[in-house]
Amino acid sequence: MRIGVSGTHGTGKTTLVEALCARLPGHVVADEPYHLLEDEEYEFQYPPSPEDYRALMARSARSLCSPPSPSDTIFDRTPLDYLAYLVAAGADPSEEADHSPLSVAFTHLDLLVITVITAETERLLPATEWPGLRTRMNDALLELVYDDPLHAWTDTPVLELGGPLDGRVDLVLGAAAQLGRREPGTAYTGPSPG
């Protein structure tokens, strides 16, 4: 399985990715696009600028499409994250992203997992920087996921995790198992997000 985990900052993405990798034998975690660009000596602004988010979106799309990524990979963030940050900053998604590269990138994912802000994330997870941006990105991400204005990830199964934090790994594993059993060309109905 190739699983992408998207969500605004402070919703437990990295913790979920690590837990999934521990429970899925043979799976590896792909480096987050931010770290890949840092390794490539990209200089980020603080806070990140729209140009930074565009660079991250492009790097994330390349990461999803890169042959060195094994078939059993879990991605901490997808291009959708960075598009949502751009939209949260007031951008029009159709002006920020070309359909073709994103569409190709999402064909390389078997499952897109969305972590969202919930009462439990607010109570149990540490406070984060830029709370206004965090909330706007969360809302933009959900709108983008379900509306897909670019028609780029419509065929990628989506699992939104809105339930208890301690049940997330099992929900993702259940979705992965169901996807592994379904007949090609049939719709993914997915477990209840909680």
Summarize the structure.
48% of the residues lie in helices and 11% in strands.
What does this structure look like?
This protein has a 5-stranded parallel beta sheet. The chain is globular. The protein is built from 9 helices and 5 strands, in the order E-H-E-H-H-E-H-H-H-E-H-H-E-H. The mean pLDDT is 91. The longest helix is centred in the C-terminal third of the chain and has 17 residues. It is an alpha/beta fold. Helix 2 packs across helix 3, helix 3 runs antiparallel to helix 4 and helix 3 packs across helix 6. It has one domain: P-loop containing nucleotide triphosphate hydrolases (Rossmann fold, 3-Layer(aba) Sandwich). The protein is 48% helix and 11% strand. This is AAA domain-containing protein. InterPro entries: NadR/Ttd14_AAA_dom, P-loop_NTPase.
Annotation field: number of helices: 9
The largest sheet is: 5 strands, parallel
Low-confidence stretches: none
Percent range of helical residues: 40-55%
Per CATH, what is the topology? Rossmann fold
Looking across the biggest beta sheet, what order are the strands in?
2-3-1-4-5
Throw out a few tags for this protein.
single chain; 194 residues; alpha/beta; Rossmann fold; 9 helices; 48% helix; globular
